[in-house]
Description:
The chain is an alpha+beta fold. Among the domains are: 79-134, Ubiquitin-like (UB roll) (Roll); 141-203, no CATH class. The protein contains four helices and eight strands; from the N terminus they run αββαβββββαβα. The strands form two sheets. It has a four-stranded mixed beta sheet, covered by helices on one side. β3 and β4 form a beta hairpin. 5% of the residues are buried. The mean pLDDT is 78.
Amino acid sequence: MRIPRYIIISTCCIAVSVLGIVAGYNLFTARSAGGLANNLSALSTEAPPAPAVPVPTPASTPTPYQPPADEPKVTAGTRMIYEYVYQGDGQVETTEELSPYFLIGVTENQLKEKLAGWDVVSFSPEEVLMRKTLPGKSVHYYLLGVEDGYVAVYYQSAVNGTRLKEITDTPVSVLSKDEQARLEHGIQVIGDENLARVLEDYGS
């Protein structure tokens, strides 16, 4: 039996179409597989290492000053001399004492740190001379009193306290009773000029 021509042509067209579909599918599958493999390869690549976090180094503690064993130090018997120098008139007030307990054992450098407002003029285990400069003029305070029956003059200072300056030639007995009582209690006089005037009044 002879097959009609149109059937043969239709069968060929269908076969070609099927072959084209299969070839396209195979190509698509190959490309998809390659892309997936590339993606997986990229994902499997090792990630770059995280940046290192800096670790702060602990602050170094300064080593305290250790004086040499033979360096001179203040002792319990050191004489501490303090000079107060007034810039306005150049007057100097001096006071002296044995070293206080909190200075025993300190060196010259340590003393400068403890008494920052003072200049260390000289330093030895026997004697330390300190000096402080003050602005303005010195104001001298005096106290008039009685010493051995005579009018006496005392220095009066916040630094040195009260100490005898001189005993005048004026006997207390020649003064009035009221003035004698005042002298017994002490009469404060401020300044050299006022002192000279009061002593002149007593001597006249």
